[in-house]
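note to self: dont lose this again. the chain is below, predicted strucutre after it. 163 aa total, dont forget to put it in the shared folder this time
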Amino acid sequence: MFVRTASERDLETIKTLLAETWHATYDAIYGVERVNEITAEWHSLASLKARLTRPNSEFLVADDGKKIAGMAFAAATSDGKALVLHQLYVHPGNQRAGIGRLLLDEVEQSFPEARTLRLEVEEANAGAIAFYGANGFVPVGATANCGADQSGIPALIFEKQLG
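---
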């Protein structure tokens, strides 16, 4: 498995990966209908395509040459001192194989000037909370609107000091 920058030709595969991962993770929390709504909005081809050209960002995939098993998207704040990990997802069939760590390492290396890496994680996503905790993140707060303004999705905010 290797990590590379995502391209437009990857977007349909990434969209499918995100839908499958979200359903496996969040159907029991939000229900299938709400997960369908979120993935249709947040993981649409137009939304994914916009990430490809966002300044001061990295859109990555974990690829073995045959399939994409994971993805990550991160962007630096305007001053470049903090980094926000907006997405890091590994397909359920590929979890616990070190792919999330590969993606996280590449995100950190892509922004050498960043001193802090911040992310939001759904409070009920115990697997993700354990993953981030094992990788040096600590809880620093909470938000009522994870991922988008007025999403109504509560989340914990985690940070990791870099460099």
